[in-house]
Design brief:
4-stranded antiparallel sheet; RNA-binding; elongated; 4-stranded parallel sheet; alpha/beta; 15 strands
RNA sequence: GGCGCGAUAGCAAAAUGGUUAUGCAGCGGCCUGCAAAGCCGUAGACGCCAGUUCGAUUCUGGCUCGCGCCUCCA
């Protein structure tokens, strides 16, 4: 049985699917106007882990991760770049997919774009207006009347009285109530727009997720996820829209992953303290990044630094070293193995990947002692479930960079020197290689090497 | 001001009402010409103050500190 920490109840709960053997997951994805940063990487990797684990646990997984391809920032970036919105968003969708692929993220079942579902949004807004949960303002904008929805605040634990709208940002004078949020924005000159019953305009941010989740997963589905910062107002507003429009619960379980931080501060665009996935991948192997993310619990904050990535790299190397030289051509995970059982227990308990990974190290220790093939295949099998250790150990340890010199030749030169007891020369060659990032290891079967 | 989360050894990071987390770094061995990798052993922890308990890092309350949300944000 899988247990999930549900933001709605602030408790771990047994996961019970709406439909036996099936799980419907909706995750808020990216707004595509720039390269993804490590915070985005975390969402992608975490929910990739979640959907993989459901899959392994025998569920039929329907995983939707949306793409926001129309919003203020996209519009301003397109003006700034003098680039069409479509070209801009398509470019960054490709970049995002490249990053996701590098991080071993399996494609969601469907990645719908907001602009492909304008009709769904319009009809949903019409329902909300008909039910008097929304109103058309003087300027043609459509707003959601927050006070018309009783459950407002149930996800984020806020009460309407405590919210301080306008404290930090000016309140739009067209709103009846300062807490109301926009469903439809009337078009300004030179902005992309769609026809609607309220004239030309474009959707507000929150409505897309309500519309797309119900389009693909139905009015009532199992899991809704996203970054912690979406909890309020985005997810709260989604609930208000969907539940008011459909008269039923939107999602049974709400999952939120913690932030990536830099020097104990949230990594964010506005603070400017972010690292793009692209930049990080120039310095670190993509699997190291994935390992780094999975090594912390998904709900905990994760501090980013080069030193922490280095640490993750060394740890991951240890796992690969244990598999080195063992031919695994058949992988079958025996859940009766005590460590496999512990792994499963950890993952079932709110996706405790750090605990699960600690078990991989216990297996590696076993392998290092006795080179056991079954244990090695168990290690690889379990790690693969997390999208780790999928590569050939030699390929990982040697890296794919071209070397400007012939390592094998130097190794054989060193071998000759060693036979002649010319240790000075042998050590010279070894340190020469080390200076170039190549570490030698003398084994009974001869000298092998790996990247530092 | 409101709401919420967290505080674990040098660093990172889990679990747990009484029993080794795990990785890196440290120390002592083994192996090696010396290393590296690996193995064995070892040290080191639960922010502070009360309470509950036979027993609390783990539960409860208070305090201190840090972080997040209340604006766009994964």
């Amino acid at each position: 049985m899988i247990r999930i920490y549900n933001t709605l109840s602030k408790n771990k709960e047994m996961f019970k699917p709406i439909q036996e053997g099936q799980v419907n997951i909706y995750v808020c994805g990216m707004t595509v106007y720039d390269l993804c940063h490590i915070g985005h990487a975390r969402v992608m990797v975490i929910f990739d882990m979640v959907r993989r684990w459901f899959d392994i646990s025998g569920f039929q997984v329907n995983y939707i991760r949306n793409i926001t391809d129309i919003d203020d920032k996209i519009i301003s970036r397109s003006l700034q770049n003098n680039e069409s919105i479509q070209s801009l968003t398509e470019r960054y969708i490709d970049e995002m997919n490249a990053d996701a692929k590098a991080l071993g993220v399996i494609s969601p079942s469907k990645e719908p774009k907001a602009t492909e579902h304008i009709e769904d949004m319009i009809s949903m807004i019409q329902i909300l207006i008909a039910k008097q949960h929304a109103y058309v303002a003087k300027n043609g904008d459509v707003f959601y009347a927050v006070r018309s929805f009783d459950g407002y605040g149930k996800l984020s634990g806020k009460s309407i009285e405590d919210l301080r709208a306008g404290e930090r940002v000016d309140v739009d004078q067209n709103k009846h109530d300062e807490l109301d949020f926009v469903l439809w924005k009337s078009a300004k000159p030179n902005e992309p727009s769609w026809d609607s019953p309220w004239g030309k305009g474009r959707p507000g941010w929150h409505i897309e997720c309500s519309a797309m989740s119900s389009h693909y997963l139905g009015h009532h589905f199992d899991i809704h996820g996203g970054g912690q910062d979406l909890q309020f107002p985005h997810h709260e507003n989604e609930i208000a829209q969907s539940e008011a429009a459909h008269d039923c619960k939107m999602a049974n379980y709400w999952m939120h992953n913690g932030f990536v931080r830099v020097d104990d501060e949230k990594m964010s665009k506005s603070l400017g303290n972010f690292f793009t996935i692209r930049t990080v991948l120039e310095k670190f192997d993509s699997e190291v990044v994935r390992f780094f993310i999975l090594r912390a619990h998904y709900r905990s904050p994760l501090n980013y630094s080069d030193a922490h990535l280095d640490d993750a790299k060394i740890a991951l190397q240890r796992l690969y070293v244990s598999l080195r030289g063992i031919e695994i051509n058949h992988m079958e995970v025996d859940w009766n193995h005590p460590l496999a059982a512990k792994f499963k227990e950890a993952m079932d308990d709110d996706f405790n990947s750090p605990e699960a990974i600690s078990i991989l190290f216990e297996l590696a220790n076993e392998i290092n002692k006795n080179k056991s093939l079954p244990v090695a295949s168990l290690l690889k099998g379990l790690a693969n479930m997390l999208g780790l250790l999928e590569r050939d150990p030699e390929a990982f340890l040697k890296g794919d960079a071209k070397n400007s010199f012939d390592i094998d030749e130097l190794i054989s030169k060193r071998h000759k020197a060693k036979l002649n007891k010319d240790f000075k020369e042998a050590d010279h060659i070894r340190s020469l290689l080390l200076e170039n990032g190549v570490v030698l290891e003398d084994t009974p079967q001869g000298t092998i090497w790996r990247k530092e």
